[in-house]
User: What shape does this take?
Amino acid sequence: MKTLVLYYSQTRKTASVAETISQELSADTVEIKDLKERSGFFNSLKSTIDAFRENKTKINPENVDLSDYGLIYIGTPTWGGKPAPAIITLIDRCNFQGKDVILFTTMGGKGGNTTIKRMKEKLEARGARIVNFFIIRTGGKEIIEIKEDTRKIIEELDLKIYEYT
Ligand SMILES: Cc1cc2nc3c(=O)[nH]c(=O)nc-3n(C[C@H](O)[C@H](O)[C@H](O)COP(=O)(O)O)c2cc1C
Assistant: This one.
């Protein structure tokens, strides 16, 4: 069984965490794209409302086959204290029965805990076992610092012990 990193990222911060995990833990990655227009001030406001209400969105890929994977990392930016709609949409389409899951979120400064809590509730309801989680604050940080923070967390949480090869 292999390890997969599933993530959504609008401005590449969550992507830089996902890429670091993938490099350090030899995991596959699948990036979920949100096909709704999310850039600009008004779309950003709408995105926060979409996240808060857990509105579904159009995603690509529409579904992910998890059958080869024993351990799945799932990452999302925090939007309004919730997971981004692309990740909520994907979680509701996948079968997580018997899967170990590690959750992560990036955030400007606050709301990461409620994002993790909501993902945990939804994934446990779909059969996943949440084995760990982490939150990375990205406000005011360069991509290189975010990658460094990710490497520190991998060490601190000893994430290599969960590795599937
Ligand atoms: C629509 C929207 C809502 C956001 N809401 C929050 C929030 O509630 N709390 C927070 O700390 N940061 C918030 N942010 C900032 C992002 O969580 C943060 O910049 C994140 O690292 C972006 O990840 P990404 O580059 O992978 O998209 C929000 C950003 C956007 C675009």
Notes: Residues 9-15, 44, 47-48, 77-81, 106-111, 138 surround flavin mononucleotide (CB under 6 Å). The two ends are 6 Å apart (CA to CA). The longest strand covers residues 69-79.
